[in-house]
Design brief:
Elements (H helix, E strand, L loop, with lengths): L1 E8 L7 H9 L3 E8 L5 H11 L3 E5 L9 H16 L6 H8 L4 H10 L1 H14 L4 H10 L3 E4 L9 H11 L3 E4 L5 H4 L9 E4 L2 H9 L8 E3 L6 H5 L6 H8 L7 E5 L11 H13 L4 H4 L2 E5 L19 E3 L7 H13 L2 E3 L5 H8 L3 E4 L12 H8 L6 E3 L2 H13 L6 H10 L10 H14 L14 H10 L3 H6 L8 H74 L7
Parallel strand pairs: 1-2, 1-4, 2-3, 4-5, 5-6, 6-7, 8-9, 8-11, 9-10, 11-12, 12-13
Helix pairs in contact: 1-20, 3-4, 3-6, 4-23, 5-6, 7-8
Length: about 575
Amino acid sequence: MKVLFAGLHLAYFRNFDSVIVELARRGHQVHLTGEETEAMGGQQLAERLAAAHPGVTWDLQPSLETEPWFDAARRMRVALDYVRALEPRYPQKLRLRAELRTARVVRWASRTFGWRVTRGALTRFERLMPASDTMIEYLRHHAPDVVVLTALTYSRSQQLDVLKAARALGLPVAAAIMSWDHLSSKALIHLQPDQVIVWNDVQRDEAVSMHGLPASRIVATGAQCYDQWFTRAPERSRDEFCRAMGLRADRPFVLWVHSALSPTPEPPEPQLVVRWIEALRAHPDPQLRQAGVLVRPHPERLKEWAGIDLTRFDNVAFHGANPIDRASRDDYFDSLYHSAAVVGLVTSAFLEAAVVGRPVLTFMLPEYRMHQEEMIHFQYLLTVEGGLLHSATDLDGHFMQLAEALALGGARDQRNRRFIGAFIRPAGLDVPATPRFADAVEALARAGARPDASLAGGAWLRPLAVTAASWSRTSAGRWLMNDRRADSWDDRARETERAVEARKQAKMAHSERKARRKASRRRQELVQAAGKKAKGIWRRARHRAAVTVHRGLYAAGVRRGAAPGAGKE
């Protein structure tokens, strides 16, 4: 059997290399292909896999940029993501992220006709786009028995076109969900693959309710990307690791894992890390004040650390690279294993820390609400089997939880165990996901492709759709389609996010001012009421005193008047 694995770029296969090795070990041929170039070690990973396993090969897909309809099709996919985010259940961040890239005509249609009608029209338009002859020829050349797509939830990718080309050739297709948030926070799966490989029942429900996929096509195998952390042992002792990092070995250290938040929050996370370390160093508890800190930057967010100086803090280290090769993975595992607790905002490193057995903590400040509480996948960290995260609403509460975590001495708590059993290894803590994933791919190859009625019919409309897509490249079409450079999307989204957050803060400040004015008026009313009551009491007391004095004087006068006649006969 020959399996073609397609990713957005070759670094994607960091999450699937155990499956690739397992399939090669079973005697299958595996071809890896990516769309984009990257600088995170993906090509080196593919080269190492190909050198170690003769059945593994790799290349880059041909670009579809020259296809006259591809640009419009990609924009329609982005527009579908925007229309999806208009549903009430989705957070505002998804709308902000997609709105700036969405065609003006789509935004107008959504306001005029509603998101349901607009979504139906866009879905039909997507299905009218033809299968790419270039992609069909590419698949014919490699002749796989089964195709596995790992980035079908990315609207900018060519994965939908790979799916259509595979459909045209009658090849079975599996969609492998790469990470825990890809079904709830990335693109819709617009066309049904023959099989969807997810981690757990939570993702199964997402695939059915959010993407409209039939439950019969969904297979839950567990998180194969984390199998390696269950059996790995540290390469260095704790003393050796601390010396290598420049940390004190006689003190526990906390690992801060940088998140890949997009668009970049305001303030950026590195500034929050500095603020957190300053508060930690000023804490009255000596256990917290003297704890070490190891900060691991995210490999895609290194630029955010420009100008951030952590050397002024004692017992604080900054270190880490993309864990894509053996040395960097050993380094990453050692940092998790030897830490006393793991802290961050929202990142998949929380899941890896849970597997290793370390307590995971976060704190939820108002300026990061959009990236934490409002995101669907973040809620899973708080709710699945009682939740994984130890969360607080401010730094004081967070430091109390951190002190409790340090007191555990690195021991696994029951919260970790329950969460892992439900989210990472639903078949059992001792049942790895990698063989189950390989079994699912083999079963799909044996079953073959299923007919897809959604792509049938409408052949006479395809030339019209292609013509409309080609027209979108004209000046009028670009205006209507809201043409913008891709590298400006994050900047514009960040500006919009700042404006939205500023409006939120202004609204909160206005509400606080109204509450203060109301409280002030209430205090004045209470003071006035108390004054009136006191004045009434004083008047009544004065009146009673006057009456008492008057009666006393009257009684005395009567006695004086009666005295002369006393004793007369």
